[in-house]
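To: structure subgroup
Subject: Chain for Friday's discussion

All,

I'm putting the inputs and outputs inline so they're searchable in the archive.
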Amino acid sequence: MKIYVITLSNSIERQNLIKEKLDSYNISFEFFYGIDGRLLTTEQINLFYDHKKATKIYKKLHNTEIACSLSHKLIYEKIIKENVEKAIVLEDAISILPDFSQIIQFLLNGNFYNTIIKLDRLNSKQTNNNNSRLGYLTPWHRIKINKKYYIGQPLKTPFLTGAYFIDKKAAYNMYSMTKQIFLPADAWWFFRNKIKLRTINTAVIWRNWSNIQSINQSNNFIENNKKNIIFTLAKYFNKIKNYYNYSINFFYYILK
């Protein structure tokens, strides 16, 4: 199992903190140096960012959002090129529960295909680690880890990219969807159409997201796009489709 920690080359303090935490649990990892949005040139933005598609589907992205998405895209590319079957992606400056080591072992031995499993909280306003209550995890597609933890399917689409498991097929699909950046890295409401999105019932990793601009903006994307008719229609269409699929699965689950 590869564990990548996305950081910036000059974030020495964050690197030292997370290294100390992971080392204390004997968790091997490698730093992955991401893109600094403050250093992006106009030429780079024009090359990697699809402004037209972004404004049509979502909204104009800020440099920090573009850089964050690019960083995660480069992780997907690395997983594909190096033929990594399973990986965990972490962002720096995180807090870690000791149980994280148990989760890693379970994911290492588990059978997953085209799956991303969020290991952090579901949004930036969440004040505790109870994802099952906040995310309304469905009673089907549950995978028991132990008496305390299980993996479930979120009925409500989460945000954040602070910590997640990803297999090679999911990395390939995520990379294919982001050949040019047009959405924030945590636009799971869009990406879940191509990958199996799951979340752990109790977050084992979290951080204070209040000072991270890109996350705050994406977490409030509905409010920022009230006037975007195409976006609103697509949002409600996806919601209806998801509820329909969940209803069919639910009746199959209770009747089988």
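Points worth raising on Friday:
The first helix runs from residue 12 to 24.
The beta strands are 2-7, 30-33, 86-91, 95-96, 115-118, 143-144, 150-152, 163-167, 196-200, 205-206.

D.
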